[in-house]
């Protein structure tokens, strides 16, 4: 990849930055769907389970809290 302003080749880091910026711009413009990150997928699944069974989720959270506080 060449720098249009100077005409010199870009370093690998500069190429990565430009590609990431281009991808972010396309996502903001709606051309690309943003990729779901693994942590976001886990949180979405946890959120869905909590909505399905709020009492059980509250009980599990309480038990985990008790176990963490005893350590």
How would you sum up this structure in a few lines?
70% of the residues lie in helices and 0% in strands. By secondary structure, it is mostly helical.
Describe the protein.
The chain is mainly alpha-helical. Helices cover 70% and strands 0% of the residues. It is built from three helices and no strands. The mean pLDDT is 79.
State the helix count. Answer: 3
**What overall form do the CA principal axes indicate?**
elongated
From the helix content, strand content and strand pairing, which structural class follows? mainly alpha
Rounded mean pLDDT score: 79
User: SSE order, as H and E?
Assistant: HHH
Which value, in Å, is the CA radius of gyration?
22 Å
Key phrases:
0% strand, 71 residues, mainly alpha
Helix-strand blueprint:
Blueprint: H1 12-29, H2 38-52, H3 54-70
Helix pairs in contact: 2-3
């Amino acid at each position: 990849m060449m720098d249009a302003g100077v005409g010199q080749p870009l370093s690998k880091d500069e190429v990565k930055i430009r590609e990431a910026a281009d991808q972010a711009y396309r996502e903001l413009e709606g051309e690309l769907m943003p990729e779901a990150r693994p942590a976001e997928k886990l949180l979405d699944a946890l959120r869905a389970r909590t909505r399905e069974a709020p009492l059980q989720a509250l009980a599990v959270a309480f038990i985990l809290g008790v176990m963490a506080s005893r350590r």
